[in-house]
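Inputs:
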Amino acid sequence: MTSKPAPSIRVDLQLIAQMIEANSRVLDVGCGDGMLLAYLWHVKSVDGRGIELSSEGVNACVSAGLSVIQGDADTDLAEYPDAAFDYVVLSQTLQAMRAPRQVLIELLRIGKRAIVSMPNFAHWRLRLALLFTGRMPRNRVLEEAWHDTPNIHLCTIRDFVALCDSVGITVERSLFLNDQGSPSHFGRSLALANLLGEQAVFLLSSRKKPPTA
Amino acid sequence: MKAHERLHSKLPADRRNLPGHRVFLGRDTPLQLDCGAVLADFPVAYQTYGTLNKNRTNAILVCHALTGDQFVAERHPVTGKDGWWALMVGPGKTIDTDRFFVICVNVLGGCMGSIGPAEVNPATGELWGLRFPIITIADMVRAQTMVLDHLGIEQLFAVVGGSMGGMQVLEWAALFPERVFAAVPIATASHHTAQNIAFHEVGRQAIMADPDWCDGEYWRVGKRPHRGLAVARMAAHITYLSESKLTKKFGRRLQTGKALSYGFNVDFQVESYLRHQGITFVERFDANSYLYITRAMDYFDMSARYGGQLANAFRDTKVRFCLISFTSDWLYPTPESRRIVHALNAVAANVSFAEIVSNAGHDAFLLDEPDFRRVLGGFLAGAAQHRGLAAPNSR
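Outputs:
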């Protein structure tokens, strides 16, 4: 539909894009400057929407022709009808939400599937850093000092999977990035992924049928 | 000189020789107004810029605000000043007339050539005056669809407007969604609040309290309620600016000298500015038109037609929306735009929404705000791509 070259995007966004079928309806929650949405529009002809808190991000998105609204995922997801989207994406944002559990439930109310990517606080380097320095650990995904970070609800891969289980959410697929930034399955062992995975991407669906609108 | 020509010559603007187009509509099918009255064979004035493409798919309707008119992007024939959106509309500009065919219609009730209280009622040979029926925002939009029919345009690429223009955009999307591909309501609201109505009532009372208003029949006696209309404009103008803009522009600075006059002449610069706004306004605007159009805005409440649920106005809409508000606009503040966004989200409509940081108040949509231009231009470019309109550089 367009002659523009496919934009190149971050590896974690590529993993998300892999999980999304062409021509589907996607809501990107916390879409930033719209990198994923632009990619999905140009490469997968996706009917994409976004919510972004920062006005800089919103201006950049709308200026690039993306359908994005200025809004707060903690409050604004409630407006959308049930099953309005094929996928709702929350990339590197869950840990910055005031109410991550509620947000997670909302994602799977308004989307038939949800895709969540997150930094893993149980990565071995972070564990060692805390053990040996006694200071809040930082890495290239978690760059800010504890008093500067928007990440108020950090968790581990196992924490996240446990939360999904407790609210009736099925993990359909999980992908991990090691600290070289390359995708890895870690022999499909969750314990190993929790130790060696720096970031995780999950494809989620609701265990019970979503209520129809 | 014929009787109605003599009447015309007493009006603020000589509308007999205005540039642009004027067409008589409703000859075969009259326009049914919300109030129950019917308009047949009535004049509507409009202006166009750019060229309509072969498929008639590149038309953008710009809807003007309360005191705007169809002269969007040219020297105004009455005031001699630049068109009210000359910054935005023109060759190579945000609304690029090299690419789009831009139409702007003088609203029903207006005083730049479209039917209104200052036009001649052919049934009586006199001006309509207060015998003109009350019109609504939806009536204005229905008249605009008749202009589109006249031009042979099935679907607009976009409808764009700020303030009352934005209300027309919302009505377009609600009443004629199949005729709109993209809708851009700017600095607007889905209904007039008590505060909005209150400010308008001050303006109307100022006009009607002027002895020269003569119960709305000032044109019979060769008078015009200059003072009342000027006060109405002054009060309204305050609502178009932010407190910080006024402070920055004028503060408490004095107009002449360094001392207070201890009288009621113009002491402060802001007084002089407002008086100037009032005086220049009456040269180009009709007092009765002001009554009618402010009334139309006060009656505006989109959700009322839809059982109080604004979302029902947009159910199953395919229109692509882009709402834009400004941080310092207290006339139609951001929560009003957000209310519309919420309704559109509730029906999973395709919507963009940006709040632009500006200290210019409501008037920001008329001014040079780079972020605003970038957002509007980017939205239109994206929508054009979705509509399959050729990019300007590929032609």
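Remarks. Residues 1-10 of chain B have pLDDT under 50 and may be disordered. Chain B has ten helices and 14 strands.
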